[in-house]
Amino acid sequence: MSWTAMAVDLGATSGRAIVGEVADDRLTLTEVHRFPNQMLEVDGHLRWQVHELLGEIRTGLRRARERGHGLSSIGIDTWGVDYGLLDTQGDLLDLPYAYRDHRTDGVMERVLHIIPRERIYEITGIQFMPINTIYQLVADAAEGRFANARRLLMMPDLIAFLLCGEARSELTIASTSQLLDCRTRAWATELCEPLGIPAGILPPVVGPGTQIGAIGADFGEAKGLKVIAPAGHDTACAVAAVPGEGDDWAYISAGTWCLVGTLTEQPVTTEAARQSDLTNEAAADGGIRLLKNVTGLWLLEECRRIWVGEGPVEDYAALCEMAAREPAGAAPFDPDHPALAAPDNMLEALALACREAGSRLPETRAGIARAIFEAIAGKMGVVLRRLEQVTGREYRRLHMVGGGSRNALLCQLTADACGLPVIAGPAEATAYGNIVMQAVAAKRLDSPQAGRDLVRRSVELRTFEPVGA
Fold first, then answer.
1. Residue 264's closest CA among 291, 243, 231, 230?
2. Three-state SS at 162
3. How far apart are CA 395 and CA 420, in angstroms?
4. How far is CA 2 from the centre of its chain?
């Protein structure tokens, strides 16, 4: 007998409503609705259009119903660190800020003068990024936004609240905040008081695969549908769908960001891990995703946004094919160069990053794309070697999932840079992982590992061997 659920995967540039069906020992996905998700500038600040996203979810539910999909539940996953604040009536104070907003400029440095970097890392195990929730909240405190705030909800928790009215924080998304104790899995309230963050606004934390509530009457025929917290962080969902066996593999979730990591049973907060800026985020199976964020395909997305304004632009697949014919090694640069974090003009920022690396940005679009892919792959190789040094483990293969796994050039460059076979797929790992965790919640699967096995039986994988290995 088949079982069906909906995964709502909200990314920083687009969202999808995807129906997953488990039948005949296979998991199949059907996309029923895709929609854009764009930051909105309001009074000089970047915000997320939450109410529009909720409307798109309504559309996804309606289209699933029109196609005859009998859903058992729905689960929401999103990017990390961002959140909304609710007032005493349970209404949003305002639209949530987007992590690329400049209001957090310089905040991290101020925080580290109050609480030592070493102490924050010892407690949370999270890498230091100016976009982290903790620094956004310090900016809120400076702006007096807590005067009317009763509850903080991370983005997937906020969407779930708007669906069912229950305020909870799912563990994997909470761990991205740099405000969660990576060992106790509770909020690190000792960090709150010295930073002016009211600990009372932090909601109860629940584990992945927890039923939060049921959709309310405002959603018409969807009323009563179970709302499950799958793994609220999209990367946690993606890692839950990595079709790996054994323990000698590492993973890359390649998309807007490229997350390079491994799974561990316990947090790794050694000085070597801190110096390598590795992050300990909660995994869907109860362990830890030890990883590092590398700036990913957002670099090319921003270039394409500029090119679209100039006239016709090759589609992504054609651009990748053209890039594969470009000469190698023409313009090395660091994809994590500070100038690339949130520039007004990505092409100008890339040119600066190249100059500081002693190279020159190519003049053609294909050449720029090639340089971006090479920079990302090279940095992922550096991170992998750091992971091996910190964990003392030797990896024999890399699983690349997410949209970047469709990019054969990026896969091959990564295999070359890491000196390991890259097993590519599934591209829709986040949706697979979301559905897997809902199936675990519904007891259709015994464990997250059973979900990995199911995904491996359900998708086609492609292996890229390192050249010269």
1. 291
2. helix
3. 8
4. 29
- Residue 234 a catalytic site member: yes
- Both structure tokens of 331: 């313009």
Tokens of 314: 């090759």
Partners of 48 in the beta sheet?
A: 39
Instruction: With beta carbons less than 8 A apart as the criterion, state whether 153 and 165 touch.
Output: no
Predicted TM-score (pTM) of this structure: 0.94
Q: What are residue 151's DSSP bridge partners?
A: 86
333 Cβ contact partners less than 8 Å away, ≥ 6 residues apart: 350, 353, 354, 356, 357, 359, 371, 375
Residue 444, SS3? coil
Q: What pLDDT is attached to residue 13? A: 85
Alpha-carbon span 136 to 154, nearest angstrom: 12
Q: Which tokens go with 282?
A: 């909660």
Please say whether the beta carbons of 319 and 362 come within 8 A: no
What CA–CA distances, in Å, run from 133 to 99, 130, 147, 153, 303?
8, 9, 18, 11, 27
Residue with tokens 């096995």: 453
Where residue 70 falls (left for φ over 0; alpha for ψ -120 to 50; beta otherwise) is beta
Q: Which amino acid is at 326?
A: E
Q: Cα(25)–Cα(415) distance, rounded to whole angstroms?
A: 31
Catalytic residue among 234, 285, 334, 416: 234
**Residue ranges of domains in the chain, CATH in brackets:** 3-233 (3.30.420.40)
Contact between 152 and 136 (Cβ < 8 Å): no
- Show the DSSP H helices in 49-164 as ranges: 50-66, 107-114, 117-124, 133-143, 155-164
Annotate 310-328 with DSSP letters as a single string. Answer: TS----HHHHHHHHHTSPT
Distance CA 112, CA 128 (A): 10
Q: At how many degrees (to 10) do helices 107-114 and 117-124 cross?
A: 90
pLDDT at 160: 98
Closest alpha carbon to 84 in 56, 52, 131, 50: 50
d(CA 232, CA 84): 15
Based on DSSP, count helices (H) and strands (E) in the chain, helices before strands: 16, 19
In the 8-state DSSP scheme, what is residue 458?
H
Instruction: Return mean pLDDT, the chain.
Output: 96
Query: 214: which residues sit within 8 A by CB, 6+ positions away?
Result: 164, 223, 224, 225, 226, 227
In this structure, the strands spanning 205-206 and 169-170 are parallel
The CA distance from 464 to 469, in Å, is 12
Give me the mean pLDDT over the 83-100 stretch: 96
Task: Give whole-number Cα distances, 349 to 103, 160, 338, in Å.
Answer: 20, 37, 9
Say how far apart CA 314 and CA 87 lie, in whole Å: 46
pLDDT tens track for 333-373: 999 999 998 899 999 999 999 999 999 999 999 999 999 99
